[in-house]
Structures are given as structure tokens and as C-alpha cells.
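Hello Y.,

Per our agreement to keep a running log of every chain we model this quarter, I'm adding this entry. I've kept the format consistent with earlier entries: sequence first, then predicted structure.
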Amino acid sequence: MSIKSEDCKWNLRSRIRAKPYSTEASLKGSDRHSERLRKRLRTHSSLAVVSDAVVIAQGYRFDVSKSNLSAYSSVFKNEIGRARTNGFKVKIELGNKKAELVKWMLDYLHHNPSFHLTDEKAEALLPLAIEYKIPMLEEKCVSILIKSATPPLHLLTLAEKHNIESLKIYAVEACSKILTSSISEQLNLPENASLTARSLQKIYE
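Predicted structure for the entry above:
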């Protein structure tokens, strides 16, 4: 992640928005799917914020608030603190991070009332929450996953992958309560292939 300076021309009542950073910006997938995704990414949130920074992912720009990013993420706070803006808008580039996931993360951090953190979004955003050290989002994702209908063995896989002790404890207990043929079936799924023998042993204890 890198931060640069950019001309600061923004409306103090501007909204979080996404638009192509260049004419060559494109997203993977079918034309129809890409167009739907572009439309969602360009949709303005209904929450007005002071826009003094811009986050860029996959060529899409999201006008954001430095104070919001700094308040919730120590990673963003450190990077913004090191940036010398000299009156220019801070630019944060997130490299190859998926634009749709970045938008979800920013919608959550800016309390966009139209954004709903579903089970699917919680699992998708968990890695970003951990990478950018956003405890509030990480805890919310874990809470949603625990209450979801996600198979406990898959939750255990996620807990091991991201080293989340609270999720691991819940998943182990949930698995131990349903020691049936369904566990054996789940063990054969490719997404659970990375489970360690130690975790499996805990299930059967």
C-alpha cells in the first residue's frame, strides 16, 4: 500500500463515491456482470463525509475521510500520518485488492446506512479487516459468522487460516456437538483440506 499526494479539489459535503480512475479500468467477468458491478461501484452513499483522501482499488476511486480511516485502522492511521500532503489530498492505493470488497469495507467504516453486512460479505471482508487491522470490523465479521448457517468445519478452517482464537473455540465446540456423517462429508470438501490433525483431534476429544 502506498500513499501519494493529489490535487485537493473536493466538496466538504461530498459523498463516498467510486468512479473509474482511468479509461482503461476494467473488472473481470462477463460484460453484463462487469456493468452491474461498475454501476454498484459508482452508486453514491447517502452519508455525507468530509472527503480529504481517496482510496484507489482496481482503477476505481473512493473519496473518504482520513479521520474515519485513522480512527478504525491503525494501518491506515500510520500511513496517513507519514504522508506529507502540503495542502493536497492524500491518495491511498490498495494495489490488486478487489474494488467491490474495498467499497464494502469503506461503506462499513463510514457507517453507510444502505450497507448490510451479510454472511457472505462478512467472510469476504474478514481478511481485509485483519490485514488493515480494523478490530471493529473483524469482531463484527466473526460475530456474524458464528450466528450464520456456515458449516462449523468451514468456520474452523477460517479460524485456522486467520488465527482467530474465538472463532476456533466456537467451531471446535460446534463440530463436537454434531459428530455425524455430515462431518465426514465436510472433511472431503477441498476447502477443508488444509485442516490440521491437531484441530481434528480437538473435535473428537
